[in-house]
């Protein structure tokens, strides 16, 4: 049995080391319907937030809300410091005591209340909202129970591990009216992604014909031996609702700063915990792609996913036969068909990370670093309408940084009891495409979908993969 490195750097993510429901959700029949759906506010509310306006949210201590961070590693340490601009971080919860200790020192000056069990956090009346930054397989359970406990929530993507979890999340959100912001912060980066959507909404590409979504290749590992669970990590609770597994860990043979594991950081390369690249980067770029189809006034209801995928382990009936290597898809070339039969989306690992929109009148490419194409160049002489970006942003206040803007939008939604820019309903329509893509990869065949009933068509085995069993003792508490 291999013993993991005792270096704290192997266990603490780099940021810690550094310090009423919308009537129609992304289903418009015309470009005009799309603009009505996202909403248009008065001219006074269309101006993007400048920094002083954002600072105005720094309310007096008695007015500021109090929040807890559930899941201190990874995105938790990147996003919680932004949340502290808008609310007071008073509690940390994690199943790894190393995360708790260092998170408390670097995020809260050692003053936060520390918890191992998130249910203790949800029972507190003095905590108004939570940020959920656990591994993916915990998201839906904690989020549902948080909403039922009366908490608003900022939850990292992907929101769920399965399609059926998404149905339950949306049902509970409607029943409780809690505000949930999904951590797809690209929706708040209006300088690039929302500009791209505005270009499409103004008809400058014409009718969309083809979209190429590049999300890079999945993770690779050698065979990873069973290892001793690190001190302070409650491995059983880390696994939670997922299947029971032995802890695995190994250092890279050539790089002492690189490791392989089925735990922290690398959980996303295991179908037991995540959906691989398809729900990691797919949750960002497939999201923007589907919003683009809607912005063009075309029907973005998915009808099928087909294509090819490569795994590093053998599969039988959709299940990996080897348990000591990363098992999510490494490479893929997938085609998504929509109810608007004129447009097709290609999800690939071997093209530039980002989204290519091709229409009858032109094409643009957008990612976090650039927005390019002739329709973009044409903006110099033929700019977008003054309110074009604000329409994409549902007429809500905006600002130009993804994480600060996303948290600011979350707080705006809480104060006004409205859906945030990345609501659970439109998120799940997109994420279901990513989940269907994963089922297609695992079974090696086309998967057909009925959006009206939200069900797989004509394939009992694929339909069964819309849900998963929960380990005894870790069922969702309703």
UniProtKB/TrEMBL annotation:
- Please give one Pfam family short name: GFO_IDH_MocA_C2
Coiled-coil segments, which residues? Answer: none
One GO MF term attached to the UniProt entry? nucleotide binding
Q: Which InterPro entries does the UniProt record give?
A: Gfo/Idh/MocA-like_OxRdtase_N, Gfo/Idh/MocA_oxidrdct_glycsds, Gfo/Idh/MocA_OxRdtase_bact_C, NAD(P)-bd_dom_sf, TAT_signal, TAT_signal_bac_arc
Q: Known Gene3D superfamilies for this protein?
A: Dihydrodipicolinate Reductase, domain 2, NAD(P)-binding Rossmann-like Domain
Q: Where is the Gfo/Idh/MocA-like oxidoreductase N-terminal domain?
A: 66-183
Indicate the segments forming the Gfo/Idh/MocA-like oxidoreductase bacterial type C-terminal domain, all copies: 223-310
PANTHER family cross-referenced by the UniProt entry = BCDNA.GH03377 (PTHR43818), OXIDOREDUCTASE FAMILY PROTEIN (PTHR43818:SF5)
Xref: NCBIfam families: TAT_signal_seq (TIGR01409)
Indicate what this protein is called per its UniProt record.
Answer: Probable NADH-dependent dehydrogenase
Kindly list the organism's lineage: Bacteria, Pseudomonadati, Planctomycetota, Planctomycetia, Pirellulales
